[in-house]
Amino acid sequence: MENMKSARKDEAGEVGSDLSEQIKAATKENHVRAENTQLMLSYQKGQITVTQYKVLLCSLYEIYTALEEELDRNCSHPAVAPIYFPQELSRVESLQRDLEFFFGSNWRKKVIVPAATQRYEQRIRKIGKQNPELLVAHAYTRYLGDLSGGQVLGKLTQKSLGLSGTEGISFFSFPGVSSPNRFKQLYRSRMNSIELTERERAAVLEEAVSAFEFNIQVFDDLQKMLSVTAETVDQSRSKAAGFQSSPI
Ligand code: HEM
Fold it and tell me: What is the pTM of this model?
């Protein structure tokens, strides 16, 4: 009976034993939730504003700085080496260029991030030091996302913000990857070559779910930050208007 069940599963093309398939299945619902955050919905409606994009860039910069430092430091770890593609994937330099484009040469002083971004960054640094075999979950969540839906988001950013060329949106372009689909295939096969115990594999899947949740919390915090800023601006505008009309 059990055998028949698993045979049917295989024929139906359901989740197999490869890490790449298991991680996709484990994070499927979280992906839907990430797509449905207010920030991502604004994106899909082609309504992303320059303010939303600028705060997103700041958070992405902090997240990728932590991720890439930890991947670099652990690049010879057996669970990191197969998925270590700094030439093809590194985002920190392109984020620096985009931040300079929007904030000017003193951009470093202007990078502000919400608490959720700091928590995400701290988690990456902690596992980089204590459990480097979990880094694959974070690298997968960000890089494979950037090479998938991220490609559409790049075009939408360009259109919504009326940008020409790649200035301000180099984050979305991967000059070292000629075919995102073929690269994703290579990345998946490298993920599948990592040797993990059952316990480690379960921890990687759990970490990938957390990685999506960290992203969702960052998007939600960014929206909250923006609505507080908008309220403050509104209040100070109405206060200013009040002062003007008051006969002091
Ligand atoms: C894959 C769309 C947001 C992570 C994909 C794919 C699409 C997509 C079309 C390809 C699915 C496939 O090949 O079967 C979108 C859209 C988004 C969005 C429209 C928002 C507007 C996100 C976010 C994350 C993310 C916020 C995580 C931070 C991923 C990952 C994959 C993926 C890791 C690879 C799945 C796999 O093949 O294993 N996305 N996505 N996506 N996305 Fe997203």
Answer: 0.90
